[in-house]
Amino acid sequence: MPIYPDLRTAHANMQMKSHLYRPTSFWAHASEQISEEIESGGVENFRRLPTPMGYFVPNYGSPTSGFTPAQVNRLKEVVANEFPEQKKSQLALNQYLDGYQSALADYRVMLAADNPRQIPYIHQFSESQFGHPVEQFEFDGKRYSRSSLNYLLGLTLLKKYLGNDEIKTVLEVGGGFGTLGEILAQSGITHLRYIDIDIPPTQFVAERYLAAALGPENVSGFNDTAQFEDIGIGQLKKTSVLCSWQIENLQLKVDLFVNFISFQEMEPEVVKNYLQHVKRLDTKWVLLRNMREGKQKLTATSTGVKTPIKSADYIAMLDGYELVETNVHPFGFETVDGFHSELLLFKKK
């Protein structure tokens, strides 16, 4: 069984920090489960472990699609047995159930909307296979997952408004397994500094993922920066993954702040604290993707948040910023049961 001292050290440090930097109700139990699964299954397999797949390794197919694995297998079996001669029908069904058609739809939106002559050059991205993903698609010779296509669509929206603005220093809170950092590292940005702030164990996973994808010489981690009271550009490599409480130590100017999906899983006071630091760092652009209606509420029998955060709450917390655009179609997502994963783009006034 793998033992990861870095993970245990970061987790022990977190227990001594403010509740603003520890897992909230939605993540409290999951964080423990993820740590256990990482140590039993190995970080090199994190993209096929059950709890990571349910929390920060999104997919298009089952169970996100609404079908259980058993239902998927049964539907494929029925069509194959009942209509063995209809190979096209079988192929179409398989592509739908496995998420290929949904991934292709997102990829086509990116191709249609992106300006390939404008930095960041997101069209040249191809995703690492570290973590042994159970779902990854290839289009035009490049690899994509739902995580990477989510970010690529968000960056496509951002590029509509950047104009001549340069995006060199990017801060993210709750960056999953590090996808945005991987995209930006391949995007042609000179003097890039990407900083992902997260709680253990996702901070640990993202650091390992980015080190594998980009080379450890290009990635700063918690152990590299824990001794610094002030963290500036000079203390950071091209890509950095820091622990949640280290946002207080950052001393730099941020061009772009990003949060995709994780704010909706936090409580309002935690989100407000992070956004206060975003404002403290004189951030110019803010790109959010979160549920318009808010996350489900915590109950005695189901995971959730105590107080859902809705779009209006983000707008209120970002006083001093102009809301440039809200977008569900085509860059966000509407679920089959009518919920809206909405992109919000802000610019400092």
Note down, in words, how this protein is organized.
About 40% of the residues lie in helices and about 15% in strands. β3, α8 and β4 form a beta-alpha-beta unit. It has one domain: Rossmann fold (3-Layer(aba) Sandwich). With about 350 residues, the protein is α/β, with parallel strands linked by helices. The strands form 2 sheets. Strands 3, 4, 5, 6, 7, 8, 9, 10 and 11 form a 9-stranded mixed sheet that branches. Strands 1-2 form a two-stranded antiparallel ribbon. It is globular and about 65 Å long. The mean pLDDT is about 95.
Beta-strand content: 15-25%
Task: Encode the helix/strand succession as letters.
Answer: HHHHHHEEHEHEHEHEEHEHEEE
Taking the sheet with the most strands, its summary is: 9 strands, mixed
Q: What ranges have pLDDT less than 50 throughout 5 or more consecutive residues?
A: none
Give the termini separation: 52 Å
- Classify the secondary structure makeup into a structural class: alpha/beta
The number of domains = 1
Tell the overall outline: globular
**How many strand segments?**
11
CATH topology: Rossmann fold
Question: How many helices?
Answer: 12
**CATH architect. name:** 3-Layer(aba) Sandwich
Q: Helical proportion?
A: 25-40%
Task: Estimate the mean pLDDT confidence.
Answer: 96
Cα radius of gyration in angstroms: 20 Å
CATH superfamily: Vaccinia Virus protein VP39
CATH class: Alpha Beta
Task: Give a quick summary of the entry.
With 349 residues, the chain is α/β, with parallel strands linked by helices.
